[in-house]
Amino acid sequence: MRALRPFALEVFFSKWEFTARHHLCASDMQSMKLSELLAMADADDRAAWDALYLGYTETWGSPDLRETIAGTYERMAGSEILTFVGAEEGIFAAMHALLGPEDHAITIIPNYQSVESVPLTICHTTGIALDAERGWDLDLQQLRDAIRPNTRVICINFPHNPTGKVISRAALDEVVSLCRARGIYLFSDEVYRLIERRPEMTLPQVADIYERGISLGVMSKAYGLPGIRVGWVACRDVEALRRMEGMKHYTSICGASPSELLAQIALKARERILARNRGLIVRNLAILEAFFAEHPDLFEWYLPDGGCIGYPRYLGRDGVEVFATRLVEQSGVLLLPASVYKSDLGATPADRFRIGYGRDNMEAGLDAIRAHLRKQAA
User: In angstroms, rounded to a whole number, what is the distance separating the alpha carbons of residues 354 and 294?
Assistant: First the structure.
């Protein structure tokens, strides 16, 4: 069994996230004040908030919240939802519940680190690299070739972190068919779903279309509410959910009652929140494209399909690690260099950086980059 390696992204953020003046690699949408969210509550939920009892909550999550989450799916029931404290806990619990030392897991790379690091502590894990030269598309033949007789879990993530790639519905159906034919669990990180660049790019949720599909959701990313720390998994395999709940007994045990009620309020007002966030993405993408067009000698921009982060290439001779370090140290602008997405499972591009476009103050950060570039040129 391999020990968990340091979480590169969190190590990086612990140094810079709350000290840099311009956080231009944020992975979430613009958040809101508590008063703004409570203003969206219906009369019953507002009364429940005012009378909220601050005791322990159910390990599975409050029944009302689970029913509300289930209502965001096509065919899920509240009994098929298990809540977590954020998405990270859901990843940890699912991998430990589903995998054993004799199993094999497959995940795409680059990716959010825990989706490879956690399985690697349990069993042999194979990485399938998304190829920048193919528009970050998933190589289905490479996936087929990676499957073994003991493959138990395949992990996917679309819209993808960090590239924003969304595969086609036909490709997703093929992945489901591969899993169904072999009884493999398909763990699908869907935290950026519903903020695609075009509605027709939105994929169905895996838990809706596959009996061994596991959909991971969270309030942090598309909804822009990371501070309430509510995530969940949806799965029709209730026995698998029970094993995940057993893992939760060793982590958070249960969520916080204020957070669960706030998540319920937000999900009931989801269309208002998502409409605001989609509008912000449209506005910021136009600003971002204009910025990259000003500097074709330094940046190669790829238009993401969904989510609120992109992964452009840095073309400068100093290299992206030096560029990103100087940028934050000298000009207070935080970008996420490719080293944070380095994988133990295969080669990943070393000349990229993550940039976020879900916040409402992006122009100030881009202006600071412009000033930094002028200073460097002088």
Answer: 18
Tokens at residue 19, please?
Answer: 């000290």
Give the angle 195-201-351 at the CA atoms, nearest 5°: 75
pLDDT grade for 121, boundaries at 50, 70 and 90: very high
Question: Within a 10 A sphere around the Cβ of 202, how many other Cβ atoms?
Answer: 16
Q: Which residues does 344 contact at the CB level (< 8 Å), separation at least 6?
A: 5, 116, 117, 120, 127
pLDDT value at 22 more than 80:
yes
Single out the residue of 310, 315, 309 nearest to residue 296, CA to CA: 315
Give the span between the Cα atoms of 33 and 54, in whole angstroms: 21
Q: What pLDDT, on a 0 to 100 scale, did the predictor assign at position 1?
A: 61
- Which residue, among 175, 187, 205, has the nearest Cα to 98 in the 3D structure? 187
For residues 130 and 165, what is the distance between their CA atoms, to the nearest angstrom? 9
User: Amino acid identity, residue 166?
Assistant: V
Q: How far apart are CA 42 and CA 74, in angstroms?
A: 23
> Which of 337, 121, 356 is CA-nearest to residue 226?
356
Q: State the greatest distance between any 2 C-alpha atoms of the chain, in Å, as a whole number.
A: 64
The encoded tokens of residue 134 equal: 């193919």
Model confidence at 105, in pLDDT bands (50, 70, 90)? Answer: very high
Q: Distance between CA atoms of 160 and 157, rounded to whole angstroms?
A: 5
Which two three-digit tokens encode residue 91?
């990843």
Residues counted in the chain: 378
Predicted structure pTM score: 0.97
Q: Are 333 and 22 in contact (CB under 8 A)?
A: yes
